[in-house]
Amino acid sequence: MDTDIVEQNHRYWDAIAPQRRGEPIGFFRGGGSALNDHEWSVIGDPHGLRVLQLAAGVGDESISLARRGAEVTAIDLAEAHLQTGREKAAALGAAVDYQQQDMMALPAELTGFDRVLISYGGLCWIPDLDRWAADLAGRLLPDGRVVISEHHPLWEVLSVAGDNRLAVSGDYFGFGRHGYADRLKAPQVTWRSEDPLPEHTSFVWGIGSVVTALLAAGLRIIALEEFADPEMYPGLGPTADLIPSSYLLCAQRS
To answer: CA 56: distance to chain centroid?
Structure first.
C-alpha cells in the first residue's frame, strides 16, 4: 500500500519538479539562508556535522548548511529537483550529495547522522509516520536530532472565507487526502496550472501524531514551537496573527 502511494506521488512530483527552482543563486551569494533563526537554534553550529535532508526538493536548506561547514546528503524522489540542486550547489561551491531516494525506503548505508531535517511540505508525503520515525531513530548518532519545520496541521485544514472568517476545508483527523480542496495548500507552482496533474495522496499529520511517533521511536522532545505567519492566510485580515501557520519540532536520540 505504502509503495503504491509513493509511486503515485513520484509521478506527481516528476510532473511539477522542473518548474521548482527555489532561491536564486544571488540570494545565497548575498548572504541569504534558507533556514531561519529558530531553525538554526535547534540545529546548532553545523560545522562538521553530518546532516540528512529528507524530501529536500532542490535542497536550499542543504546548501545553507553546507555553506556553514556541514557534510550534507539531500534526498528527493524527483530527479529534476536533484539536478537543479546540483547545479546551484556547484555554482556556490557547496558540497551537497544529492541522491534520488524514497524516504520510506532508505538504503542501509545512509546512517550515522547528527541531524535529520525535514522542512516545509515534506511531512505530508509520509504514508506511515510510526515506521518513518522508527527508521530515522536508528540512523541517528547518539545525541543526534530530528528537526521538523513544517506547515501547521491547522493551517492545512483551514481556509480563508473572508475578512476574519475561516472555513474548514480538510479533516484534521482524516490523515489521507487526494488532491487539495484549497489550492493554497498545494505546491505553489500548481496554483495557476490548468493542466491535469497525476493523482497523488498526501497526509495531514496532527502534532499529537507526530510527537507520539517520535516518542515511540525512543526519541526525546527537546523543542516544540508554533508560529504565526499572516501571509499564509491571505485575505483573513489582522486576526491572522492569532492562529498558527507553522511549527518547529526537535527530537533527540538519548
So the answer is: 7
**The whole model's pTM is what?**
0.95
Query: Which ranges constitute the DSSP H helices of 44-161?
Result: 60-66, 79-92, 129-137, 153-157
CA 41 to chain centre: 17
Summarised one tens digit per residue, pLDDT across range 116-138 is 999 999 999 999 999 999 999 99
Hunting for cell 533527540 — which residue is that? Answer: 252
Where along the chain do its domains lie?
Answer: 2-253
Tell me the per-residue pLDDT of 160-178, one tens digit each, with 9 for 90 and over: 999 999 999 999 998 789 9
Q: Which CATH class is domain 2-253?
A: alpha beta
Query: Could you give the C-alpha distances from 19 to 6, 73, 171, 222, in angstroms and in order?
Result: 21, 22, 29, 36
Q: Residue 56 pLDDT more than 80?
A: yes
Q: Which long-range contacts (CB under 8 A, 24 or more apart) does 79-87 make?
A: 79/14, 79/17, 80/14, 80/17, 80/18, 80/20, 81/13, 81/17, 81/20, 81/56, 81/57, 82/58, 84/17, 84/20, 84/21, 84/22, 84/58, 85/22, 85/56, 85/57, 85/58, 85/59
Q: Is 237 left (phi over 0), alpha (psi -120 to 50) or beta?
A: left
Lowest mean pLDDT among 21-25, 51-55, 187-191: 187-191
Q: Classify residue 7 as exposed, middle or buried by CB count within 10 Å of its CB (0-12, 13-18, 19+).
A: exposed
| Residue 137 CB contacts under 8 Å (≥ 6 apart), including other chains | 146, 214, 217, 218, 219, 253
